[in-house]
Amino acid sequence: MNSGQLIFYVLLIVAFVYLLKLLMQKRKTHLNEPMEKEATDNENAESLFQEGKSLLSSPGSTPEDKKNGLEKLVKAEELGHVEAPYHLGFIFSRADEAGCFSKRSVEHYMLAAERGFGPAQRMVGGFYELGMGAEKDDKKAIKWYKKAAENEVDDALSMLATVYFRQKDYEEAVKWAEKSADRGIRLGYIQRAVYGFVPDGSFEKYKESQKWYYLYKKALLDVPNSPEKVTVQEAKLRKVLDESYDNICKFMAEMELNEDMSYSCDEGDDDVSCKILDYEKDKDTGHIHYVLDGEIKDGIFGLSGIITGDGVQAQWCREEMEFWVNFDRENSDKLLETMTSEYKTNVERLFMLKELITYMGGIDKFEKVCDAKGIKYNEHSF
Fold first, then answer.
1. Do residues 49 and 80 lie in contact, with contact meaning Cβ atoms separated by under 8 Å?
2. Where exactly are the structural domains of the chain?
3. Does residue 186 contact residue 220 with C-beta atoms inside 8 Å?
4. Of 152, 197, 244, 341, which residue is the least packed, with the fewest Cβ within 10 Å?
């Protein structure tokens, strides 16, 4: 190969490398174009969305401003903005006779939900749950409510609890109601009180339910400088719960808690009284027979009783012993708070009183509780 041929091949290789470099640079630019375009579109979409919202919400906006604002939201939606379809759904829900269930409103809400906007996902879950705006389908409702919950839309938790309870999946209903309550949602407290108790109706679940009902009522009072506002759903749940509480209290007032114990209970307008009849215990020192009479009068608890049996003779050298236990207002309140969460209706107070005097059946246990809680009382006997 002579020198001329060598120069030719070198120049050919240089030209090839240069062309290859140009092609690679062009390909890199081509690959970056979609990402750059997407970034630009996102910036433009957000800008259009903010401008559109401002024009639509400004108090001084003219009809022309509002028209321009709507056009900007539509353009933002076309550019892929996540939240814009939700706002368009809301706008059309106010404009259309069918409200949020109108065809074009639902379409925009659906689009926002598919793009991952939490409040829209909750709304779509409602469409499927109610069968309005979409065909009724609990599975799809649950799917969208769960997506909304994942996006920290708190009331979706309560909605999930409602759907599961209607399906009689009580375990899931309780789980989601408790999650709602854990977030401090007032509805979650009353749902947990109802869903954990009503299907079972047992005494154990009643006491647990009372705890959640107490938290619910406390939440009502924790809103500063605001009147008590109970939603329609809360009112319905409270009615169900109150009726269920009445049933179990009346049932428990009539039944024997064990084969050694029976009750006689009365309730007036403001006061309640309850007597344990034929309550018998066997102790190491002999047989003891109790008749305990308790009352709550003007909010103050009092107890009296007669104890008979050979156990009385062995312990106190008497054939029988009569006693009274009295509390002042402060210590009565302490005792009631210790034994129960909060009972306001007569039926609830009556049931509480039964619990208290049953507890009194174990006098030693009662004294230990009072000592531990610093509850003072006067006891007289003869």
1. no
2. 154-255, 262-381
3. yes
4. 152
- On whether the CB atoms of residues 102 and 93 are closer than 8 A, the answer is yes
Question: Which one-letter amino acid corresponds to residue 237?
Answer: L
Please state, in angstroms and rounded to a whole number, the distance separating the CA atoms of residues 27 and 346: 82
Q: Which amino acid is at 336?
A: L
DSSP character string of 202-269 = -HHHHHHHHHHHHHHHHHHHTSTT------HHHHHHHHHHHHHHHHHHHHHHHS-SBTTBEEEEEE-S
Residue 277: what are its φ and ψ, rounded to 5°? -105, 140
pLDDT, averaged in runs of 10, over the chain (382 residues) = 63 70 68 52 82 88 89 92 93 76 90 96 95 92 97 94 93 94 91 86 73 83 60 86 69 45 54 59 63 73 76 68 79 70 53 60 64 79 65
Task: Mention every residue, 6+ apart, whose C-beta is less than 8 A from residue 265.
Answer: 253, 272, 273, 274, 275, 350, 353, 354
What size, in residues, is the chain?
382
| Angle in degrees, CA 299, 301, 306, rounded to 5 | 150
